[in-house]
Design a protein that fits this description.
One of its GO terms (biological process) is translation. Keywords: Ribonucleoprotein, Ribosomal protein. One of its GO terms (molecular function) is RNA binding. InterPro entries: eL8/uL1-like, Ribosomal_uL1, Ribosomal_uL1-like, Ribosomal_uL1/biogenesis. The chain has 177 residues and is mainly alpha-helical. 35% of the residues lie in helices and 8% in strands. The chain is built from 6 helices and 5 strands; from the N terminus they run αβαβααβααββ. The strands form 2 sheets. It has a 3-stranded parallel β-sheet. The mean pLDDT is 72.
Length: 177
């Protein structure tokens, strides 16, 4: 399947996103850090923003032992294997806790490099394909893969795409298609 987004257009847009964002300085209004004194501080609130915040530790034996000592709920590899493929139990676990902490060994590189296209009621998709410290070639490759995969998921292929944009978090969007 040929792509309607040319490599030259992709490289130009990636360059604009990466380099166009660097020259724009963002700061507080009417606040010059050179002249005005910098500040930092902490304040204890009277009422907590998250009074019943609950978390669970998913980890190896060392992290489970540490969480037991602090009286924090934990799950090890064996407990998670019991949940495997059972959606009802997984949903029940997800609703029970507000946050999950996991050991670094649990997150393989595959999970970090996987993106998910999910069509909701809004007919607009946004997906993270990289970050500004990546090289142009890496970004172009990731964008090319993501666009081709998205096109393969759609009915009528390219006829269902009105426009494709890329942008950095605070940068101007660059139109690809």
């Amino acid at each position: 399947m040929s792509s309607k987004v040319s490599r030259d257009t992709l490289y130009e847009a990636v360059w604009e996103v990466l380099h166009g964002n660097q020259c724009k300085h963002r700061n507080l209004q009417n606040y010059d850090p050179q002249k005005d004194k910098c500040f930092s501080g902490t304040v204890r609130l009277k009422s907590t923003p998250h009074p019943k915040f609950s978390m669970c530790v998913l980890g190896d034996q060392q992290h489970c032992d540490e969480s037991k000592a602090m009286d924090i709920p934990q799950m090890d590899n064996e407990a998670l294997k019991k949940l495997n493929k059972n959606k009802k139990l997984v949903k029940k676990l997800a609703k029970k806790y507000d946050a999950f902490l996991a050991s670094e060994t649990w997150w393989p590189k595959l999970m970090k490099s996987t993106i998910k296209f999910q069509m909701k009621k809004v007919l607009c998709l946004a997906v993270a394909v990289g970050h500004v410290t990546m090289t142009d070639d890496e970004l172009v490759y990731n964008i090319h893969l993501a666009v081709n995969f998205l096109v393969s998921l759609l009915k009528k292929i390219w006829q269902n795409i009105r426009a494709l944009y890329i942008n950095s978090t605070m940068g101007k969007p660059q139109r690809l298609y």
